[in-house]
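Reproducibility note. Readers wishing to regenerate the assembly model reported in the main text can use the exact inputs given here. Chain order matters: entities are listed in the order in which they were concatenated for prediction.
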Amino acid sequence: MSDADSEMVGRWSRGDEAAFADMVRRWEQPLARFLGRLTDANQVPDLLQETFLRVHRARLRYCENGHFSAWLFQIAVNVARDSGRRRPSPESLDCEPVCDAESAASLLERREESDALLRAVADLPMELREVLALRHDAGLSFEEMARRLNVPASTLKSRFAAALRRLRERLSDPGELPEGSS
Amino acid sequence: MNCQDVRDLLPLSVYGDLAGAERAGVEAHLAHCDACRKDLAALGGVRQMLDESPTPRAPFDASAIHHAESQRHRRAAWRWRVAALVGLAAAIAFAAVRLEVRFDNQQVAIRLGRVETVPSPDGNLSPIVARQDAGSSPDVHEQLKLLNELVHALAANLEAGDRGNREEMEKLRQEIAAIQKLDQKRWSETRRDVSALYTAQFGARNTGANP
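Running the prediction on these inputs yields the following C-alpha coordinates for the assembly.
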Protein backbone atom coordinates (compact mmCIF):
# COMPACT_ATOMS: atom_id res chain seq x y z
CA MET A 1 0.00 0.00 0.00
CA SER A 2 1.35 3.43 -0.89
CA ASP A 3 2.05 6.06 1.79
CA ALA A 4 -0.84 8.15 0.45
CA ASP A 5 -3.21 5.17 0.74
CA SER A 6 -1.94 4.38 4.22
CA GLU A 7 -2.45 7.95 5.42
CA MET A 8 -5.90 8.12 3.79
CA VAL A 9 -7.01 4.80 5.28
CA GLY A 10 -5.74 5.89 8.69
CA ARG A 11 -7.83 9.07 8.61
CA TRP A 12 -10.83 7.18 7.28
CA SER A 13 -10.69 4.50 9.98
CA ARG A 14 -10.72 7.31 12.57
CA GLY A 15 -14.04 8.49 11.10
CA ASP A 16 -12.83 11.32 8.83
CA GLU A 17 -15.49 11.55 6.08
CA ALA A 18 -13.26 13.77 3.92
CA ALA A 19 -10.82 10.84 3.77
CA PHE A 20 -13.64 8.73 2.37
CA ALA A 21 -14.20 11.31 -0.38
CA ASP A 22 -10.44 11.18 -1.13
CA MET A 23 -10.66 7.41 -1.31
CA VAL A 24 -13.54 7.58 -3.76
CA ARG A 25 -11.56 9.92 -6.02
CA ARG A 26 -8.47 7.73 -5.78
CA TRP A 27 -10.19 4.41 -6.54
CA GLU A 28 -13.31 5.09 -8.62
CA GLN A 29 -11.57 4.74 -12.00
CA PRO A 30 -9.64 1.53 -11.18
CA LEU A 31 -12.78 0.03 -9.67
CA ALA A 32 -14.93 1.06 -12.65
CA ARG A 33 -12.42 -0.59 -14.97
CA PHE A 34 -12.33 -3.70 -12.81
CA LEU A 35 -16.12 -3.98 -12.59
CA GLY A 36 -16.38 -3.39 -16.34
CA ARG A 37 -14.36 -6.59 -16.90
CA LEU A 38 -16.68 -8.62 -14.70
CA THR A 39 -20.12 -7.30 -15.56
CA ASP A 40 -22.21 -5.48 -18.09
CA ALA A 41 -20.88 -1.93 -18.64
CA ASN A 42 -24.35 -0.51 -18.06
CA GLN A 43 -24.29 -1.91 -14.55
CA VAL A 44 -20.94 -0.37 -13.62
CA PRO A 45 -22.26 2.91 -12.12
CA ASP A 46 -24.68 1.03 -9.84
CA LEU A 47 -22.11 -1.56 -8.86
CA LEU A 48 -19.54 1.13 -8.15
CA GLN A 49 -22.03 2.83 -5.88
CA GLU A 50 -22.79 -0.44 -4.13
CA THR A 51 -19.08 -1.19 -3.69
CA PHE A 52 -18.39 2.15 -2.01
CA LEU A 53 -21.51 1.78 0.09
CA ARG A 54 -20.28 -1.57 1.40
CA VAL A 55 -16.83 -0.09 1.97
CA HIS A 56 -18.37 2.75 3.96
CA ARG A 57 -20.35 0.35 6.11
CA ALA A 58 -17.38 -1.96 6.64
CA ARG A 59 -15.16 0.80 8.05
CA LEU A 60 -15.33 -0.50 11.61
CA ARG A 61 -14.52 -4.03 10.47
CA TYR A 62 -11.51 -3.05 8.39
CA CYS A 63 -8.20 -4.15 9.92
CA GLU A 64 -5.16 -2.21 8.83
CA ASN A 65 -2.72 -4.80 7.51
CA GLY A 66 -1.25 -3.15 4.45
CA HIS A 67 -3.62 -4.88 2.02
CA PHE A 68 -6.19 -2.14 1.55
CA SER A 69 -6.48 -2.51 -2.23
CA ALA A 70 -6.88 -6.29 -1.95
CA TRP A 71 -9.68 -5.74 0.58
CA LEU A 72 -11.31 -3.15 -1.67
CA PHE A 73 -11.21 -5.35 -4.78
CA GLN A 74 -12.50 -8.32 -2.82
CA ILE A 75 -15.57 -6.27 -1.94
CA ALA A 76 -15.93 -5.37 -5.62
CA VAL A 77 -15.72 -9.07 -6.57
CA ASN A 78 -18.48 -9.87 -4.08
CA VAL A 79 -20.63 -7.04 -5.46
CA ALA A 80 -20.12 -8.31 -9.01
CA ARG A 81 -20.97 -11.86 -7.92
CA ASP A 82 -24.10 -10.67 -6.15
CA SER A 83 -25.20 -8.76 -9.22
CA GLY A 84 -25.98 -12.08 -10.86
CA ARG A 85 -22.76 -12.79 -12.71
CA ARG A 86 -23.92 -11.00 -15.82
CA ARG A 87 -21.50 -11.04 -18.67
CA PRO A 88 -19.95 -7.81 -19.85
CA SER A 89 -22.04 -6.33 -22.63
CA PRO A 90 -20.58 -7.10 -26.07
CA GLU A 91 -21.71 -3.65 -27.19
CA SER A 92 -19.26 -0.79 -27.32
CA LEU A 93 -18.53 0.91 -24.04
CA ASP A 94 -19.54 4.44 -23.33
CA CYS A 95 -16.04 5.68 -22.62
CA GLU A 96 -14.08 8.75 -21.77
CA PRO A 97 -13.42 10.76 -24.95
CA VAL A 98 -10.01 10.43 -26.55
CA CYS A 99 -8.48 13.90 -26.66
CA ASP A 100 -5.59 13.61 -29.04
CA ALA A 101 -5.01 14.11 -32.70
CA GLU A 102 -5.65 10.56 -33.91
CA SER A 103 -7.18 10.24 -37.33
CA ALA A 104 -10.75 9.02 -37.69
CA ALA A 105 -9.51 5.79 -39.29
CA SER A 106 -7.14 5.13 -36.44
CA LEU A 107 -9.86 5.85 -33.89
CA LEU A 108 -12.22 3.49 -35.68
CA GLU A 109 -9.60 0.76 -35.76
CA ARG A 110 -8.93 1.16 -32.05
CA ARG A 111 -12.63 1.05 -31.35
CA GLU A 112 -12.97 -2.20 -33.27
CA GLU A 113 -10.02 -3.71 -31.43
CA SER A 114 -11.52 -2.62 -28.16
CA ASP A 115 -14.88 -4.17 -29.08
CA ALA A 116 -13.19 -7.42 -30.11
CA LEU A 117 -11.40 -7.55 -26.76
CA LEU A 118 -14.65 -6.81 -24.95
CA ARG A 119 -16.39 -9.68 -26.74
CA ALA A 120 -13.51 -12.05 -26.01
CA VAL A 121 -13.48 -11.15 -22.31
CA ALA A 122 -17.28 -11.43 -22.14
CA ASP A 123 -17.09 -14.99 -23.43
CA LEU A 124 -14.70 -16.11 -20.67
CA PRO A 125 -16.27 -18.05 -17.80
CA MET A 126 -16.70 -15.91 -14.67
CA GLU A 127 -13.96 -17.69 -12.69
CA LEU A 128 -11.43 -16.92 -15.46
CA ARG A 129 -12.65 -13.34 -15.78
CA GLU A 130 -12.29 -12.80 -12.03
CA VAL A 131 -8.70 -13.95 -11.87
CA LEU A 132 -7.84 -12.00 -15.05
CA ALA A 133 -9.30 -8.79 -13.60
CA LEU A 134 -7.74 -9.32 -10.19
CA ARG A 135 -4.29 -9.83 -11.71
CA HIS A 136 -4.42 -7.36 -14.58
CA ASP A 137 -6.64 -4.53 -13.29
CA ALA A 138 -6.30 -4.87 -9.51
CA GLY A 139 -2.64 -5.91 -9.68
CA LEU A 140 -2.98 -8.54 -6.96
CA SER A 141 -0.44 -11.30 -6.62
CA PHE A 142 -1.65 -14.90 -6.86
CA GLU A 143 -0.76 -15.44 -3.20
CA GLU A 144 -2.90 -12.48 -2.14
CA MET A 145 -5.76 -13.71 -4.32
CA ALA A 146 -5.44 -17.18 -2.81
CA ARG A 147 -5.80 -15.72 0.70
CA ARG A 148 -8.80 -13.63 -0.28
CA LEU A 149 -10.68 -16.19 -2.38
CA ASN A 150 -9.71 -19.35 -0.48
CA VAL A 151 -8.54 -20.95 -3.71
CA PRO A 152 -5.00 -22.41 -4.08
CA ALA A 153 -2.53 -20.10 -5.84
CA SER A 154 -1.64 -22.89 -8.28
CA THR A 155 -5.31 -23.14 -9.36
CA LEU A 156 -5.49 -19.37 -9.80
CA LYS A 157 -2.31 -19.39 -11.93
CA SER A 158 -3.79 -22.10 -14.16
CA ARG A 159 -7.01 -20.10 -14.54
CA PHE A 160 -5.10 -16.95 -15.35
CA ALA A 161 -2.95 -18.74 -17.95
CA ALA A 162 -6.08 -20.25 -19.50
CA ALA A 163 -7.79 -16.83 -19.63
CA LEU A 164 -4.88 -15.11 -21.33
CA ARG A 165 -4.41 -18.04 -23.71
CA ARG A 166 -8.09 -17.94 -24.74
CA LEU A 167 -7.93 -14.19 -25.34
CA ARG A 168 -4.80 -14.62 -27.45
CA GLU A 169 -6.44 -17.34 -29.57
CA ARG A 170 -9.66 -15.40 -29.95
CA LEU A 171 -7.94 -12.14 -30.89
CA SER A 172 -5.64 -13.83 -33.39
CA ASP A 173 -8.72 -15.06 -35.24
CA PRO A 174 -8.78 -13.00 -38.49
CA GLY A 175 -12.53 -12.52 -38.16
CA GLU A 176 -12.22 -10.85 -34.77
CA LEU A 177 -9.94 -7.91 -35.48
CA PRO A 178 -10.08 -5.20 -38.16
CA GLU A 179 -7.83 -5.61 -41.18
CA GLY A 180 -4.24 -4.56 -40.54
CA SER A 181 -4.37 -5.41 -36.83
CA SER A 182 -2.36 -8.26 -35.39
CA MET B 1 11.75 -27.72 -20.96
CA ASN B 2 9.92 -28.43 -24.19
CA CYS B 3 7.59 -26.06 -26.06
CA GLN B 4 4.45 -27.32 -24.31
CA ASP B 5 5.95 -26.84 -20.84
CA VAL B 6 7.04 -23.33 -21.76
CA ARG B 7 3.75 -22.31 -23.35
CA ASP B 8 1.91 -23.20 -20.17
CA LEU B 9 4.14 -20.74 -18.34
CA LEU B 10 4.30 -17.91 -20.87
CA PRO B 11 1.13 -16.09 -19.65
CA LEU B 12 2.73 -15.91 -16.19
CA SER B 13 6.01 -14.80 -17.73
CA VAL B 14 4.26 -11.89 -19.49
CA TYR B 15 3.21 -10.56 -16.07
CA GLY B 16 6.57 -11.26 -14.41
CA ASP B 17 5.11 -13.98 -12.21
CA LEU B 18 7.80 -16.58 -12.75
CA ALA B 19 10.76 -17.03 -10.42
CA GLY B 20 13.71 -19.33 -9.84
CA ALA B 21 14.04 -22.47 -11.90
CA GLU B 22 10.86 -21.89 -13.90
CA ARG B 23 11.98 -18.47 -15.00
CA ALA B 24 15.47 -19.70 -15.89
CA GLY B 25 14.01 -22.65 -17.81
CA VAL B 26 11.66 -20.44 -19.83
CA GLU B 27 14.42 -17.94 -20.65
CA ALA B 28 16.77 -20.72 -21.74
CA HIS B 29 14.09 -22.18 -24.03
CA LEU B 30 13.15 -18.81 -25.54
CA ALA B 31 16.78 -18.19 -26.45
CA HIS B 32 16.59 -20.86 -29.14
CA CYS B 33 12.84 -21.25 -29.92
CA ASP B 34 11.43 -18.82 -32.45
CA ALA B 35 7.83 -20.14 -32.19
CA CYS B 36 7.67 -19.64 -28.42
CA ARG B 37 9.15 -16.15 -28.75
CA LYS B 38 6.35 -15.30 -31.18
CA ASP B 39 3.81 -16.74 -28.77
CA LEU B 40 5.27 -14.62 -25.97
CA ALA B 41 5.04 -11.51 -28.14
CA ALA B 42 1.39 -12.26 -28.98
CA LEU B 43 0.54 -12.71 -25.31
CA GLY B 44 2.31 -9.43 -24.59
CA GLY B 45 0.08 -7.88 -27.26
CA VAL B 46 -3.01 -9.13 -25.40
CA ARG B 47 -1.70 -7.56 -22.20
CA GLN B 48 -1.18 -4.28 -24.03
CA MET B 49 -4.73 -4.39 -25.42
CA LEU B 50 -6.07 -4.97 -21.92
CA ASP B 51 -4.02 -1.97 -20.74
CA GLU B 52 -5.39 0.22 -23.49
CA SER B 53 -9.00 -0.87 -23.25
CA PRO B 54 -11.25 2.02 -22.22
CA THR B 55 -12.68 2.53 -18.77
CA PRO B 56 -16.48 2.46 -18.60
CA ARG B 57 -17.95 5.85 -17.85
CA ALA B 58 -19.26 5.67 -14.30
CA PRO B 59 -20.50 9.02 -13.03
CA PHE B 60 -20.25 8.54 -9.31
CA ASP B 61 -22.47 10.30 -6.83
CA ALA B 62 -20.83 10.18 -3.41
CA SER B 63 -23.70 12.13 -1.87
CA ALA B 64 -26.01 9.16 -2.60
CA ILE B 65 -23.90 7.08 -0.21
CA HIS B 66 -24.26 9.65 2.56
CA HIS B 67 -27.97 9.85 1.84
CA ALA B 68 -28.37 6.06 1.97
CA GLU B 69 -26.35 5.88 5.18
CA SER B 70 -28.30 8.67 6.87
CA GLN B 71 -31.55 6.91 5.92
CA ARG B 72 -30.24 3.68 7.38
CA HIS B 73 -29.19 5.37 10.63
CA ARG B 74 -32.54 7.13 10.85
CA ARG B 75 -34.38 3.82 10.45
CA ALA B 76 -32.17 2.19 13.11
CA ALA B 77 -32.73 5.13 15.49
CA TRP B 78 -36.47 4.89 14.89
CA ARG B 79 -36.47 1.18 15.69
CA TRP B 80 -34.61 1.82 18.96
CA ARG B 81 -36.97 4.64 19.83
CA VAL B 82 -40.02 2.46 19.25
CA ALA B 83 -38.48 -0.37 21.29
CA ALA B 84 -37.68 2.01 24.16
CA LEU B 85 -41.16 3.50 24.19
CA VAL B 86 -42.79 0.07 24.02
CA GLY B 87 -40.64 -1.03 26.97
CA LEU B 88 -41.59 2.05 28.94
CA ALA B 89 -45.25 1.66 28.12
CA ALA B 90 -45.12 -1.94 29.28
CA ALA B 91 -43.38 -0.88 32.51
CA ILE B 92 -46.03 1.80 33.09
CA ALA B 93 -48.82 -0.67 32.43
CA PHE B 94 -47.29 -3.25 34.78
CA ALA B 95 -46.84 -0.66 37.50
CA ALA B 96 -50.34 0.75 37.05
CA VAL B 97 -52.18 -2.55 37.33
CA ARG B 98 -49.71 -4.10 39.77
CA LEU B 99 -49.27 -7.11 37.59
CA GLU B 100 -47.07 -9.67 39.24
CA VAL B 101 -45.72 -12.77 37.62
CA ARG B 102 -44.26 -15.37 39.96
CA PHE B 103 -42.71 -18.77 39.44
CA ASP B 104 -43.41 -20.79 42.51
CA ASN B 105 -43.59 -24.51 43.34
CA GLN B 106 -43.53 -25.46 39.66
CA GLN B 107 -46.43 -23.11 39.05
CA VAL B 108 -46.71 -19.82 37.27
CA ALA B 109 -48.78 -17.34 39.26
CA ILE B 110 -50.07 -14.17 37.64
CA ARG B 111 -51.62 -11.71 39.98
CA LEU B 112 -53.37 -8.49 39.12
CA GLY B 113 -53.97 -5.60 41.49
CA ARG B 114 -52.83 -4.78 44.99
CA VAL B 115 -52.55 -7.70 47.37
CA GLU B 116 -53.33 -7.43 51.02
CA THR B 117 -53.66 -9.98 53.77
CA VAL B 118 -56.19 -9.47 56.48
CA PRO B 119 -56.50 -11.37 59.77
CA SER B 120 -59.45 -13.69 59.99
CA PRO B 121 -61.67 -13.86 63.07
CA ASP B 122 -59.87 -17.01 64.22
CA GLY B 123 -56.49 -15.18 64.22
CA ASN B 124 -55.05 -16.79 61.05
CA LEU B 125 -54.26 -14.92 57.88
CA SER B 126 -57.10 -15.03 55.39
CA PRO B 127 -56.63 -15.97 51.74
CA ILE B 128 -55.21 -13.30 49.45
CA VAL B 129 -57.56 -10.53 48.50
CA ALA B 130 -56.93 -8.82 45.19
CA ARG B 131 -58.00 -5.22 44.66
CA GLN B 132 -58.87 -4.06 41.18
CA ASP B 133 -58.81 -0.34 42.03
CA ALA B 134 -55.04 -0.21 42.33
CA GLY B 135 -54.88 2.74 39.90
CA SER B 136 -56.46 4.97 42.48
CA SER B 137 -53.69 4.45 45.03
CA PRO B 138 -51.65 7.64 45.74
CA ASP B 139 -48.28 5.85 45.40
CA VAL B 140 -49.31 4.60 41.96
CA HIS B 141 -50.04 8.19 40.95
CA GLU B 142 -46.61 9.17 42.16
CA GLN B 143 -44.99 6.39 40.14
CA LEU B 144 -46.98 7.31 37.03
CA LYS B 145 -45.84 10.90 37.40
CA LEU B 146 -42.21 9.80 37.67
CA LEU B 147 -42.53 7.55 34.62
CA ASN B 148 -44.18 10.34 32.70
CA GLU B 149 -41.24 12.63 33.47
CA LEU B 150 -38.85 9.86 32.46
CA VAL B 151 -40.58 9.39 29.10
CA HIS B 152 -40.44 13.12 28.41
CA ALA B 153 -36.76 13.29 29.34
CA LEU B 154 -36.01 10.34 27.05
CA ALA B 155 -37.96 11.88 24.16
CA ALA B 156 -36.11 15.19 24.60
CA ASN B 157 -32.80 13.37 24.61
CA LEU B 158 -33.66 11.50 21.39
CA GLU B 159 -34.79 14.73 19.77
CA ALA B 160 -31.50 16.44 20.64
CA GLY B 161 -29.56 13.48 19.21
CA ASP B 162 -31.55 13.63 15.98
CA ARG B 163 -30.95 17.35 15.66
CA GLY B 164 -27.20 16.78 16.03
CA ASN B 165 -27.27 14.06 13.34
CA ARG B 166 -29.22 16.27 10.96
CA GLU B 167 -26.72 19.11 11.40
CA GLU B 168 -23.83 16.75 10.75
CA MET B 169 -25.47 15.37 7.59
CA GLU B 170 -26.12 18.89 6.32
CA LYS B 171 -22.47 19.77 6.85
CA LEU B 172 -21.41 16.66 4.92
CA ARG B 173 -23.78 17.48 2.06
CA GLN B 174 -22.28 20.95 1.79
CA GLU B 175 -18.75 19.51 1.72
CA ILE B 176 -19.72 17.09 -1.05
CA ALA B 177 -21.38 19.84 -3.07
CA ALA B 178 -18.19 21.93 -2.78
CA ILE B 179 -16.08 18.99 -3.97
CA GLN B 180 -18.38 18.38 -6.94
CA LYS B 181 -18.27 22.06 -7.86
CA LEU B 182 -14.48 22.03 -7.75
CA ASP B 183 -14.36 18.90 -9.93
CA GLN B 184 -16.67 20.50 -12.46
CA LYS B 185 -14.53 23.62 -12.56
CA ARG B 186 -11.35 21.57 -13.12
CA TRP B 187 -13.04 19.57 -15.86
CA SER B 188 -14.12 22.79 -17.63
CA GLU B 189 -10.58 24.14 -17.39
CA THR B 190 -9.17 20.93 -18.84
CA ARG B 191 -11.60 21.04 -21.75
CA ARG B 192 -10.70 24.64 -22.43
CA ASP B 193 -6.96 23.86 -22.35
CA VAL B 194 -7.40 20.87 -24.66
CA SER B 195 -9.46 22.96 -27.03
CA ALA B 196 -6.83 25.72 -27.07
CA LEU B 197 -4.05 23.20 -27.69
CA TYR B 198 -6.02 21.63 -30.52
CA THR B 199 -6.62 24.99 -32.14
CA ALA B 200 -2.96 25.92 -31.77
CA GLN B 201 -1.92 22.62 -33.35
CA PHE B 202 -4.34 22.43 -36.26
CA GLY B 203 -5.52 25.98 -36.79
CA ALA B 204 -8.94 27.51 -36.80
CA ARG B 205 -10.14 25.65 -39.92
CA ASN B 206 -10.56 22.43 -37.96
CA THR B 207 -12.53 24.04 -35.18
CA GLY B 208 -15.58 22.02 -36.16
CA ALA B 209 -13.85 18.77 -35.24
CA ASN B 210 -12.38 20.20 -32.10
CA PRO B 211 -12.72 17.63 -29.31
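We highlight two features of this model. Chain A has eight helices and no strands. The mean pLDDT of chain A is 80.
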